[in-house]
Amino acid sequence: MTQGEFEAIIADISKRIDGEISWGEDEDHSPAVEFRAEISSEAGYPLFVRGSYNSEARKLSYVLIHRGEGRIYGLCLGIDHHNPRCDHVGDRHKHRWSEGQRDKQAYVPPDITAPVDDPVAAWTQFCAEARITHNGMLHLALSASGGQPVF
Amino acid sequence: MLSPCEQIAQTMGGLFSCSAVNGYTRIRTPYLYPDGDVIDLFLRQEEGEATLTDLGETLRWLRMQSIAQRRSPRQNKLIRDACLNHGVELFRGMLMARVKPSDDLSSAVTRLAQAALRVSDVWFTMRTRVFESITDEVEGFLDERHMRFDRGETLPGRSGRTWTVDFHIRHPRRSALMCVLSTASRAAARGIAEHVTSEWHDLSHLKLGPEALAFISLFDDSLDVWNPEDFRLVGELSEVAFWSKPDELVERLVA
Questions:
Q1: Is the CB of A28 less than 8 angstroms away from the CB of B93?
Q2: pLDDT digits (tens, 9 = 90+) for A34-52
Q3: What's the pLDDT band for B119 if we cut at 50, 70, 90?
Q4: What are the phi and psi torsion angles at A122 (to 5°)?
Q5: Mean pLDDT over all residues of chain B?
Q6: Do B92 and A104 touch (CB under 8 A)?
Q7: Which pLDDT score is estimated for B8?
Q8: By the 8 A CB rule, do A16 and A134 touch?
Q9: Number of Cβ pairs closer than 8 Å across A and B?
Q10: B67-76 pLDDT, tens per residue?
Q11: Phi and psi based region of residue B168 (left: phi greater than 0; alpha: psi -120 to 50; beta: remaining)
């Protein structure tokens, strides 16, 4: 994928997700809950979104995955990050794909203001910046452990 | 002037920072996952013993990079091996280590952080899958089902051209040649289907005789890139199978 192709994908406002999204247990039954949603677009980009929320560790991620390239865009809250040049970005950052560094480079997104424990608000802000229209709602994220100790 | 050993003794600890998070002591390490995200560990004291864990964050990080729904058997094997090597327990997706009062906490932190690094390196196997094909994944599947096979066999066609088939699989009931068709590009899909059709046509003499081989074309249908015409094209000379239906593939192989 070229930089131009990536920019075209992000700029495409026809990207959309239809239907409601619910969180579920992951394959390991870990403390985190997650979802996966297909993205359709006029150009037919092979994209989907994964969301993951670990209320125990207070970490939240939404990522845009291209089936040919892997993760190309992602929001991380509560997760600290260092860029390849060693600059410290902090625990509220976005990964953005580039030809040179793939998805290793992150930046602080000024438009993401939702706290880590409000996944629905963060989802709305993530979709707005990634130009994804969600025709439906994201349900509240419940703890995978149901409030019980995780170990 | 401090010696290197004195410098390490005085400054190494400063690379780790601690804070209270949700009833745990969060230990922010200087170690990074392959994309630059920082590895955090969590410590909880309970009944005189402490448990150190990543709270499932390492495997969560892995999942967030993956196009696959689940990890492959081979990837799980690598993860179990990393845990065994570092004396770490894998429980509900969490890397865990007990820290007894007599244990050295810094040693446990280093051990668990190293295990998290090793486990996150499974990412490199995913990266290969993205760039190359799903043949590694298919190989892992055949291994898991105890199928005997040869991978990447080269066979001469009737035209004199040499072809490489992805798998030559032998079962007591019959043997089969299998080509895996995989691409992320709709534009490339037809070309791949035509190439495999040519291959089957040129190798068609192997479908004859007492040791006749079955021809199977396995489509990676995790991507919506194929047209019905592609299936029809290769289906004229081979049996069509889909990676989304692995049990049906096995039925074909043992039919």
A1: yes
A2: 999 999 998 888 899 999 9
A3: very high
A4: -65, -35
A5: 90
A6: no
A7: 86
A8: yes
A9: 120
A10: 877 888 888 9
A11: beta
A142: buried, middle or exposed (CB in 10 Å: 19+, 13-18, 0-12)? middle
Residues 95-114 on B with a CB inside 8 Å of A are 96
- Residue B81, min C-alpha distance to chain A (Å): 17
User: What is the model's pLDDT at position A32?
Assistant: 95
CA-CA-CA-CA torsion sign (A140, A144, A145, A146): positive
Name the residue of chain B whose CA is nearest to A69's CA: B130
Q: Which two tokens stand for residue B107?
A: 């040693």
**Can you list the residues of chain A whose pLDDT is less than 70?**
none
Q: Which of B41, B60, B83, B132 is the best residue to mutate to test the A interface, defined by the most A CB atoms within 10 Å of its own CB?
A: B60
What is the spatial distance between Cα B165 and Cα B135, in angstroms, rounded to a whole number? 11
Alpha-carbon span B26 to B30, nearest angstrom? 13
Residue spans per domain, chain B: 4-125, 134-254
Are B40 and A57 an interchain contact pair (Cβ–Cβ within 8 Å)?
Answer: yes
pTM of full prediction above 0.80: no
Q: Is B146 on the interface with A (CB under 8 A)?
A: no
pLDDT band at B128 (very low <50, low <70, confident <90, very high): very low
Taking 3-state DSSP, the helix, strand and coil percentages for chain A, each rounded to the nearest 5, stand at 15, 35, 50
Interchain contact, A30 vs B225, CB within 8 Å? no
This complex has an ipTM of 0.91
H helix count then E strand count, chain A: 2, 9
Contacts of B200 (CB under 8 A, 6+ apart): B179, B215, B217, B234, B237, B238
Give tens-digit pLDDT for B142-192: 988 889 999 989 899 999 999 989 999 999 989 999 999 987 777 778 888
The helix, strand and coil proportions of chain B, stated in percent and rounded to the nearest 5, come to: 40, 30, 30
Question: What's the pLDDT at B99?
Answer: 93
Of B38, B64, B186, the CB nearest to A82: B38
Taking CA–CA distances from A102, the nearest residue in chain B reads: B35
Chain B residues with beta carbon closer than 8 angstroms to that of A95: 35
What fold does the segment set B134-254 form as a domain? Answer: Trna Endonuclease; Chain: A, domain 1 (3.40.1350)
Domain covering B4-125 in this structure, CATH number: 3.30.1460
Return the SS3 of A38.
Answer: strand
For chain B, percent of residues with pLDDT exceeding 70? 97
